[in-house]
Specification:
The protein is of the alpha+beta class. The chain folds into three domains: about 120 residues, Acyl-CoA dehydrogenase/oxidase, N-terminal domain (Butyryl-Coa Dehydrogenase, subunit A, domain 1, Orthogonal Bundle); about 100 residues, Butyryl-CoA Dehydrogenase, subunit A, domain 2 (Beta Barrel); about 150 residues, Butyryl-CoA Dehydrogenase, subunit A, domain 3 (Up-down Bundle), CATH 1.20.140. It is built from eleven helices and eleven strands. Strands 4-5-9-8 form a four-stranded antiparallel beta sheet, covered by helices on one side. Strands 3-6-7 form a three-stranded mixed beta sheet. A hairpin with a 2-residue loop joins strand 6 and strand 7. Helix 2 packs parallel to helix 4, helix 5 runs antiparallel to helix 6 and helix 9 packs antiparallel against helix 10. The radius of gyration is 21 Å and the shape is globular. The relative contact order is 0.12.
Length: about 400
């Protein structure tokens, strides 16, 4: 299967260095996106619908918790996971976000910190897409600062009782299980909460201008009573949820490349086919300059993502390196999507073409799992040795 669009902007032949297994996965996910996401995405985005029917298909493709080992998970490499995220986000950020929340956040938390019993109870079903998971960290008053967490879990005999609120929780209204982070007497701990537990409620956030084909919710926890074994035994303090965020941030560094590349591909195809002033607009100097600048940024972002993936597979990846990818790649992706839109003129503001949809989605991608400001200060602290957060 030859994928011209995958390599149109690949001026340095980066994809030529992928292994056969990596390219095979790339083509399989790209084919899924062409068959199952592209035909429906304009309508889903327009109607603000997340296509739940895709969930078991994503499980069948082995994309849910794909970097995890055992319990029905695919056990693929970090680079393979990244490639899959890139191809999914070329379809739509909202679809990639689903896989990220399910695999990098909810399943990762259970896989890293769960008991044997918790892993066996949830991971195989989540890997198949039979159960959707969500990850409750962010709160209405504590977006970028999880250390200000107000949600509490207190012991009551053999049980735990959770009270609090979470916001911007992906998938919560369709999830069967939630990983909820709460303050206890011993600091922040994680809990596995079946969403049918009395006192748990999730309300989708509506009227969004971004990520419309995706679900984000407000979650309320009112006297949610759980057995002692709902506690994630392996996670203590904020290092637990942060290690899951780093998994998600890593996937975003790859995913953003997909959104940027798809925006470029759409603009290139349009520029070749659209005639103005007697020639295709691809033959005009300013259009060529736009295309060249976009392609260069996509190449640099792709090299960063690939470098992160190879380091991750070697066990040499540091969290500050992930911040490089998250900050740079979301930033260039949104600029690329906006620049690509200009090549379409007025036609570019409709859902007939992908760049403005990608640009709108990327407003969320750029904000979640650490804003530009947060990653800038993480890197500033790395460079100077001084924390500027407080």
């Amino acid at each position: 299967m030859h994928h011209d669009s995958i390599t149109a902007s690949d001026l340095l032949g980066i994809d030529l260095d992928l292994s056969d297994a990596e390219r095979e996965l790339r083509d399989r996910v790209s084919d899924f996106v062409n068959r199952r996401i592209r035909p429906g995405i304009a309508d889903w985005f327009d109607r603000a619908v997340f296509p739940l029917e895709l969930v078991p298909e994503l499980g069948e493709l082995g994309l849910l918790g794909m970097h995890l080992h055992g319990y029905g998970c695919a056990g693929r490499s970090a680079v393979e996971y990244g490639i899959a995220m890139r191809e999914l986000e070329a379809g739509d950020s909202g679809i990639r976000t689903f896989v990220s929340v399910q695999g990098s956040l909810a399943m990762s938390a259970i896989s890293k910190f769960g008991s044997e019993q918790q892993k066996e109870a949830w991971l195989p079903r989540m890997a198949r897409g039979e159960v959707i998971g969500c990850f409750g960290l962010t709160e209405p008053a504590a977006g970028s600062d999880p250390s200000d967490m107000r949600t509490t879990a207190r012991r009551d005999g053999d049980e735990w009782v959770i009270d609090g609120e979470k916001r911007w929780i992906g998938l919560a209204s369709v999830a069967g299980v939630a990983v909820i982070w709460a303050n206890t007497e011993e600091g922040v701990r994680g809990f596995v909460v079946p969403t049918d537990t009395p006192g748990f409620s999730a309300t989708p956030i509506t009227q969004k201008l971004s990520m419309r084909a995706s679900i984000q919710c407000d979650v309320a926890l009112k006297g949610v009573r759980l057995p002692a074994d709902a506690l994630l035994p392996g996670a203590s303090g904020l290092r637990g949820p942060f290690s899951c965020l780093n998994e998600a941030r890593y996937g975003i560094a790859w995913g953003a490349v997909g959104a940027a590349r798809d925006s470029f591909d759409a603009a290139l195809a349009y520029a070749r086919g659209r005639t103005q002033f007697g020639r295709p607009i691809a033959g005009h100097q300013l259009t060529q300059q736009k295309l060249v600048n976009m392609a260069l940024e996509i190449q640099k972002a792709q090299l960063i993502a690939l470098r992160l993936g190879r380091l991750k597979d070697e066990g040499r990846l540091e969290h500050t390196m992930i911040s490089v990818g998250k900050l740079n790649n979301t930033r260039i992706a949104i600029e690329t999507a906006r620049e690509a839109r200009t090549i379409f003129g007025g036609n570019g503001i409709t859902l007939d073409y992908s760049p403005m949809r990608h640009a709108a989605n990327l407003e969320s991608v750029r904000t979640y799992e650490g804003t530009d400001e947060v990653h800038t200060l993480i890197l500033g602290q790395k460079l100077t040795g001084l924390s500027a957060f407080h």
